[in-house]
Amino acid sequence: MLPERTGYIIWVSDLKAARSLEKYGTVHYMSRRMHYVVMYMNADRSEETVRLIGKLPYVRKIERSYRNEIKTEYSKDTEDKTRAYSI
């Protein structure tokens, strides 16, 4: 079974040094223009890992991703209006 994963957005000042974040988890995306890294790590060890990452000299800010808390199951309570406008 797959472990519970947590996503983090890490704002960095140096992207070359940010490549070393791969040893803390899975780096999903690195933005060269906006200088942030999206990475995932195991949820059970995330608190201590975030504390270690926060001490790195090139890390400016760390934000938790709320993607896994967003509702992804939708219900169709309203009628489909696209059929009324079709030719």
TrEMBL record:
<dbReference type="InterPro" id="IPR016979">
    <property type="entry name" value="DUF2129"/>
</dbReference>
<dbReference type="Pfam" id="PF09902">
    <property type="entry name" value="DUF2129"/>
</dbReference>
<keyword id="KW-0963">Cytoplasm</keyword>
<protein>
    <submittedName>
        <fullName>YlbG family protein</fullName>
    </submittedName>
</protein>
